[in-house]
């Protein structure tokens, strides 16, 4: 099951940003992959959040260079200046995923992001993107070839 499309649109992120204080943070979690045939969710949500928030960070729970199915933590920050995530590495987090968080940050090129849409109330194909991801990883786990849509 994918995230409800209405929670990943420019309109939603603008509404959320406007309800936050000047240094407020919105955190969202989406599963996905960076494999070419299933990365649309990650990049479309990132591009959309950048339309609303002055600062956006994406942290991969496995590896920001891997094509494995993983969770991505999206952080929309209502601050004027970017935070250096390496400062968080000095904190002794109990949860292993939060250790070395700067190395887990996804930082795709602007050229790559431009290939994906900004999601809006009128156009947010998250369920289609999620279906592509599920289809790909179901095929991998069962040893079958993924069906073409």
Keywords:
single chain, 149 residues, alpha+beta, 3-stranded antiparallel beta sheet, 3 strands, 30% helix, globular
Write the layout of secondary structure elements.
Layout: H1 10-19, E1 25-32, H2 40-52, E2 55-60, E3 70-77, H3 110-113, H4 126-142
Antiparallel strand pairs: 1-3, 2-3
Helix pairs in contact: 1-2
Query: Regions with pLDDT < 50 over 5+ consecutive residues?
Result: none
If you compute it from the alpha carbons, what radius of gyration comes out, rounded to the nearest whole angstrom? 16 Å
Overall residue-averaged pLDDT value: 88
Give, in spatial order, the strands making up the sheet with the most strands.
Answer: 1-3-2
Please report the number of helical segments: 4
What portion of the residues fall into strands of 2 or more residues? 5-15%
First-last Cα distance: 18 Å
| Secondary structure: helix percent | 25-40%
- SSE pattern, N- to C-terminal: HEHEEHH
Please count the beta strands (DSSP E, at least 2 residues each). Answer: 3
Query: What coarse outline follows from CA principal-axis ratios?
Result: globular
| Count of domain modules | 1
Summarize the biggest pleated sheet.
3 strands, antiparallel
| Secondary structure category | alpha+beta
